[in-house]
Amino acid sequence: MGVLDGTTILEIGWNFLDRQAAIVVLRVDPEGRILSANSYARELTGLPLVAGSLEDLLIVSTERAELRRWLTPSVEPRMMNVRTVDGLTQTLYVTSVRLGSELLLFGQADPQEQDRLRREFLELNQELTALGRELALANAELVRLNGLKNKFLGMASHDLRKPVGLILNRAERLLEDATLNMSAEACRNIRGIMASASSMARLIDDFLDVTMIEADRLSLDIQVVEQDGLVAGALALVQAAAAQRGTQLRTALDQGCARLRVDGPKLEQVLTNLLSNAIEYSPDGACVTVVSQAQADGIRFWVEDQGAGGDLERRQRIFEAFSGSGALKPSGERSIGLGLAIVRKIVLAHGGSCLVESRLGGGSRFGFLLPASCRAAAPRS
Amino acid sequence: MATKTIISEATYDHYLDALLQGDRPGCSRIVQDKCTEGAGVKDLYVNLFQRSLYQVGDLWEQHRISVAVEHLATAITERVMTLVQPRVFGGAQRERSVIVACVADEYHQLGGRMVADLAELHGWRGHFLGANTPVDGLLQMIDRHKPDLLGLSLSVYFNLPALLKALDAIHGSFPGLPTLVGGQAFRPRWGGTSALQGYRDVRPVMTLEELERELTAHGRA
Question: How many domains would you assign to chain A?
Fold first, then answer.
């Protein structure tokens, strides 16, 4: 058998197609049963193919319904989407020739299409990584600016605290000094100064709290505290504000969580902030109630008011710092929007989450859920 | 001057092997481990990413790996570089800035990205515009950021005309803007640097050490 023998060349060509070429070669009978499949077809699909149906290759049900279409010979390449061994799909461009009653199908991918796809993916990856870099850079800049903001806020608050304290102190001394014999109007004015200075002092404390929290300097001192004492402490701190508005303060405490394992002063601050808001946003003479519920998933605390309530959209962001800034309180004061942000940070630090339920015109209740681990056992008698 | 390294030959071989196998998680693990061990950004860039990609390039030139393997290795490197990114940015406000870009039709962006990141490490703000930046886009970004320095990366020597076109346009609009050019196209075997001789404010930079010296010099200016 010579080297140029036609049979030999055909044999070499067929062997190449059968074992090495990246071309799918299938021989099918008139019913679509696969009589033989080359190595590439089996590797591509991960199926034995032989004795199976051409249908097994097709992924789209409408294509399966049109099996007949594939059993007619075509020299024009037709697109066939097949399922591959790795679960992806691949498009083969299929031509076919009739061999007696059988059909020989040749399917291959379009290399130009694959090149285009590869190039697009590479460019996309480059664009994404370059964008990711820009994002990381912008993020770093935001972190730096936020740090500067906190630093400024901390320094300004710290510097303001002392003069505001002095104003309060001296105004108080003026009121107490009987030798001055001040008129009723002068006393009213001094009380007005004291009220404004107290409000400013609270704001400064909020700024300092936020600065400390933002700088990740919030550390908890976890102790076992009595629930009754904790709530009473918070109520005492808002008593004056409540009296001014004629607000009735009530409690409905679940004694199933009589002892708590928490940072007492910080949780008292949480309750105080919630109570202050509830008093501020309720009409004069309303009732504000502190409720606790010991439940399987943890301990819930609620502060319920009889205010105007709010809409759902606002609720989503209400615990974020400055989210309510600029809003007008019922008293006419401008809200800074830090109280609930401080609540959120302290509750989160305890492993808890914040809660809010509100209905327009039906009052609101703000609260938090502490993990069950915050419940301390009752002392042994 | 060689970069001080904590990347051993065994680690490098392991990484290169993973890279050539297209093993993205494997490469990520090695980079994460080295970050945890305290490897510096420059150490990783020079002794892991740059060295391995140079070797990938050599293997590709010798027809020992396919184009697909080379592309995948580049894409994996782009990805694992993002693991190092949080350590690149941050710190004090940047007084000086550099824009780094690849000119039109230049799709090899990794070197440029490394340059922008190293500039950040040297206290510069490194704006990286990515691959295939059209001249108009580049001019707009220069106008917007008013950089103190421009860096242009060229990997494929045959894109040199695009680089020269960009340089003409840039120095027409922003005369005197100090410009550094670098990349594989300027390796001695290609000799791209001779084409730059007519540009007064353009300096070729062949190594990252040279780049650092330039950044220091321009930082003082």
Answer: 3
Q: Is residue A354 part of a domain?
A: yes
Please tell me whether residues A202 and A294 are part of one structural domain: no
B30 with B70, same domain? yes
Instruction: Please report how the helices B67-84 and B51-61 are oriented relative to each other, as an axis angle in degrees rounded to 10.
Output: 170
Residues of B in Cβ contact (< 8 Å) with A137: 89, 120, 125-126
Residue of A nearest to B126 (CA): A137
Instruction: Identify residue B53 by its one-letter amino acid code.
Output: L
- The last residue of one of the domains, among B36, B55, B87, is B87
pLDDT at A373 > cutoff 50: yes
A149 touches chain B (CB under 8 A): no
Contact status of B88 with chain A (Cβ, < 8 Å): yes
Residue A122 to residue B107, Cβ atoms within 8 A: yes
Residues B63 and B102 in one domain: no
- Closest residue of B to A132, CA-based? B82
Q: Residue A97: beta bridge partners?
A: A104
**B71 and B141 share one domain:** no
Report the CATH number that the domain containing residue A120 is assigned in CATH.
1.10.287
Size of interface A-B (CB pairs under 8 A): 57
Distance CA B131, CA B96 (A): 23
ipTM greater than 0.85: no
Q: Which residues does chain A have within 8 Å of residue B90's beta carbon, measured at their own beta carbons?
A: 140, 143-144
The whole-number pLDDT of residue A219 equals 79
> What's the confidence (pLDDT) of residue A312?
47
B127, B200: one domain: yes
- Cβ <8 Å between A126 and B129: no
Inform me whether the C-beta atom of residue B129 falls under 8 Å from chain A C-beta atoms.
yes
Q: Render A70-100 in DSSP notation, one character per residue.
A: HTS-EEEEEEEEEE-TTS-EEEEEEEEEEET
The 10s digit of each residue's pLDDT in A130-140 is 888 989 888 88
Q: Is A132 on the interface with B (CB under 8 A)?
A: yes
CATH code for the domain in which residue B137 is found: 3.40.50.280
In this prediction the pTM is: 0.68
Mutate to test the interface with A, among B41, B49, B69, B78 (most CBs of A within 10 A): B78
Q: Of A120-129, A203-212, A312-321, B133-142, give the lowest mean pLDDT range.
A: A312-321
The set of residues, in sequence order, having a beta carbon less than 8 Å from that of B179 and lying 6+ positions away, is: B149, B150, B151, B152, B167, B170, B171, B199, B201, B202, B203
Distance CA B29, CA B14 (A): 11
Q: Are A26 and A36 in contact (CB under 8 A)?
A: yes
CA of A214 to nearest chain B CA: how many angstroms apart? Answer: 17
Is residue A59 over pLDDT 90? no
A123 Cβ under 8 Å from any chain B Cβ: yes
Query: What is the domain range of residue B210?
Result: 96-220
pLDDT band at B10 (very low <50, low <70, confident <90, very high): very high
- Check B132 against A123: CB less than 8 A apart: yes
Distance of alpha carbon B48 from alpha carbon B10, whole angstroms: 12
Using the beta-carbon criterion (under 8 Å), do B90 and A140 form an inter-chain contact? Answer: yes
